[in-house]
Amino acid sequence: MAITSQQDPEISVSLPAEPPLLDFSRAEVVGAFWVVNDGVMGGVSSSRLCPAPGAMLFEGEVSLASNGGFASFRGPVRFPAQSAVLMLTVRGDGRRYQLTLKPVDDAGTAQYQAGFVAPLDWETLSFQPTDFAASFRGRAVAAPVVSFADMRYVGLLIAEQQSGNFRIELKSIATEAGAQPGPGG
After folding, report:
1. Number of structural domains, the chain?
2. Percentage of residues in the chain with pLDDT exceeding 70?
3. Is there a contact between 112 and 102 (Cβ–Cβ < 8 Å)?
4. Residue 183: its pLDDT value, please?
5. Which residue from 27, 74, 82, 131 could staple onto 155, CB 3.0 to 4.6 Å apart?
6. Could you give the CA distance from residue 178 to residue 106 in angstroms, rounded to a whole number?
7. Residue 25 belongs to a domain with what CATH number?
């Protein structure tokens, strides 16, 4: 972020950016996440998480055999109360993924999902609450607009009948604050 001086528009001061909420270049952050594949439903998809240079790598193979068809991971997160935008820095294979959010780590709880196509080069993607839709076991469900501050788990999912190998790297997840609605909306 650059701030321009009111007295001399040629002078600008760069302020350091906020550190990312989740910095996937740190081994302890990568170690806090775990894989959840379709084996929980009898499927045979496989995936793994591992450190990569300056990032976390999520790779594997999605199989549609045995009622399968997804691979995912998730881990704990605490978004600041004023979080209005989530920013995911990622690169991958050009396949479609879902950024997922859950209020609790319970298989009987709906999750919020926002779809994106993994860019081939590093890119920071921004997500607002209205980008997320609630779902339960792949089906849309009625739910209020997501409040980032109420979510305790974040992850990625690849599904949507996309069989085959996949590979995506995550560098960080950061947030941007926004104005909170006042009384009455």
Report:
1. 1
2. 86
3. yes
4. 40
5. 74
6. 29
7. 2.60.120.260
Q: How many helices (H) and strands (E) does the chain have?
A: 1, 15
Task: Name which of 62, 67, 71 is nearest 36 in CA terms.
Answer: 71
Which of 54, 60, 19, 52 is closest to 156 using CA atoms? 60
pTM: 0.84
Confidence check: pLDDT of 118 > 50: yes
Q: Evaluate whether residue 8 is within a structural domain.
A: no
| Structural domain includes residue 3 | no
Of residues 127, 39, 134, the one with CA closest to residue 47: 39
Looking at the domain assignment, is residue 60 inside a domain?
yes
Residue 2 lies inside a defined structural domain of this protein: no
Comparing C-alpha atoms, which of 11, 112, 10, 12 is closest to residue 1? 12
Q: Compute the distance between CA of residue 9 and CA of residue 138 in angstroms, rounded to an integer.
A: 52
Span 39-65, pLDDT tens digits: 878 899 999 999 999 999 999 999 999
Task: State which amino acid sits at residue 4.
Answer: T
The 10s digit of each residue's pLDDT in 8-34 is 445 444 334 567 899 999 999 999 999
d(C-alpha 165, C-alpha 34), whole Å = 19
Q: By the 8 A CB rule, do 177 and 82 touch?
A: yes
The alpha carbon dihedral of 150, 153, 155, 158 has a sign of negative
First to last CA, the chain: 30
Structural domain span for residue 139: 17-177
